[in-house]
Amino acid sequence: MKFPVLYESGTWPSTHRCPQCDKLALLSPHPMAILAGGALRVTDPDTKAAVVASDCIGLLSLFWHGGGGRPNAQLPIVEYAPLGQYELRFCSTQCLKGFLCAAVDALEKAIPRD
Q1: How many folded domains does the chain comprise?
Q2: CA-angle at 104, arms to 100 and 105, nearest 5°
Q3: What does DSSP assign to residue 113?
Q4: Rounded to two decimals, what is the model's pTM?
Q5: Secondary structure of residue 40 in the 3-state scheme
Q6: Residue 1: inside a domain, yes or no?
Q7: How does pLDDT run across 40-50, given as a tens digit for each residue?
Q8: Which secondary structure element, helix H or strand E, spans residue 102, and what is its range?
Q9: pLDDT in tens, 68-114
């Protein structure tokens, strides 16, 4: 799998097929697992009211901190999601788990070795 999976878009995949198993199931009324994230602009701190901010972008990365002057590694998963909002959709929690495991595996490969 190539990372980042989502760039300058708000929803991945762009088709109704699960990106992990290729099952045609990512449309209603089928159930699905969704990894969602984003940012909102707070309009009233007292009530915690917030709105989507048109001047924000969303991102999601896995990061390895090498510590002690050793090199770091980063795996971007989502970059430049418009309005700061994104969804990664899967047909099942098993496929979501497979995706997350693949992302961690890719991060491990990106970690510089001594």
Answers
A1: 1
A2: 115
A3: P
A4: 0.86
A5: strand
A6: no
A7: 889 999 999 99
A8: helix 93-110
A9: 888 999 999 999 999 889 999 999 999 999 999 999 999 999 999 87
